[in-house]
Amino acid sequence: MTRELLLMSCTARGLGHHVTAVRHMILTVLWKPPAFVMGSSDDIAQVEKDEDVCMSDKMIARYWEKAEARNVRCLLCPHACHIRPGRTGRCLVRKNIDGQLIANAYGEISSMSIDPIEKKPLKHYYPGSSILSVGSYGCSLSCDFCQNWTIAQREVATSLVEPEQLVRQAADYEHAGNIGLAFTYNEPLINIEYVMDCAQMIRKKGLKTVLITNGYLNSTPFLDLLPYVDAMNIDLKAYSQTFYKDICFGSLKPVIQSIEAASKSQCHVEVTTLIMPGLNDQESQIEALAVWLASLSPEIPLHLTRYFPAYKRADPDPPSLSHMKHLADLARKYLTFVELGNV
Ligand code: SF4
């Protein structure tokens, strides 16, 4: 079995089924995988064997503490997973190996694409530019409607791409309009060590770091990372604790805090809400969301994107275009920029 990089022409929110042959073709040319990826199955087996032998070389995670016996507690996101040896936390990527928390997805790339920046979606940040976009696997939330579940809700095949290699690749395509690196497709914050290492390097090249994220992080690591991030689109799944608890298996407050912190920083911030009829699209909820966002700044762009059934959900039906427009008009009473997506 090969460990080929998955060249996925997906985007972070619901466009995964719109595969573009052109972009795939570009990527096939762009992507220069590590030698072992293209090697024979014997080579690959050797790499896997080496990884087992060299487990001590794996990146030790930040933000955790020892618990009883050889258990650990992860302090990265509000789940505060208590993890036994050999197990991972809920995000699938932070693993207890011999009583130490390991950033198991460090440098593990499942997906790579050059995307228009508008597709992140970031509509008000270097419009017309492109960005080298990469994903890994795993997520800190478990939304039953996950639009990118094929890499966010399970472990998938990956290729190891060291930060130097990724940054070099981004710089190589600056002449073609690439402004930097976007960490997207799955949740990047669970791979904070890798994002931070790449972000520091890419800034030295004069390029940008962009995150497409659920914002579900504890405030200490979020504030540590924030100075290295140039732009973010943060998902606000709903302006409702009940929705976060029942449908995403998380909570609203940490996301609110992340958006607030980012909006007060130098980072460019845009926010996205996926509209799910009957679940988060009540006028009162959209209005409350817009009022709150405007209290941070009426200039923060809000993207209302159209839900399509995915992952564990066959319902509800996607919202009608007229309903989307109505909600956008409502939000425009408070916000300067309200965009529709997936329509
Ligand atoms: S980052 Fe992962 S392991 Fe850590 S608390 Fe969150 S879900 Fe659990």
Plain-language structure description:
With 343 residues, the chain is an alpha/beta fold. It folds into two domains: 21-32 and 108-341, Alpha-Beta Barrel (TIM Barrel); 59-103, no CATH class. 30% of the residues lie in helices and 19% in strands. The protein contains ten helices and 15 strands. The protein has helices spanning 21-30, 41-53, 149-152, 163-172, 192-204, 219-225, 241-248, 252-263, 283-296, 321-331, and strands spanning 64-66, 72-74, 82-83, 94-97, 100-103, 108-109, 111-116, 130-135, 159-160, 178-183, 208-213, 231-235, 268-275, 302-306, 338-341. Strands 7-8-10-11-12-13-14-15 form an eight-stranded mixed β-sheet. The protein has a three-stranded antiparallel β-sheet with strand order 1-2-3, with no helix packed on it. Strands 4-5 form a two-stranded antiparallel ribbon. Helix 10 (321-331) links the parallel strand 14 and strand 15. Helix 4 (163-172) crosses helix 5. It is globular and about 55 Å long. The protein starts with 20 loop residues before the first helix and ends with a strand. The model is unreliable at 1-56 (pLDDT under 50). Iron/sulfur cluster is lined by residues 74, 76-77, 79-81, 89-91, 94, 140, 190.
